Amino acid sequence: ILCIHLQRATISAYNESTKLQ
Question: Across residues 9-21, what is the average pLDDT?
Fold first, then answer.
């Protein structure tokens, strides 16, 4: 479960980075 949570957090951060660009 923790792994999935970390992956979701990473994806969210990646999505935010893409929005900024």
Answer: 91
> Rounded mean pLDDT of 6-20?
92
Q: Which two tokens stand for residue 21?
A: 């660009």
Start-to-end CA span in the chain (Å): 31
Burial letters 3-21, b for 16+ CB under 10 A, else e: eeeeeeeeeeeeeeeeeee
Structure tokens at 16: 């935010």
Rounded distance, CA 2 to CA 21, Å? 29
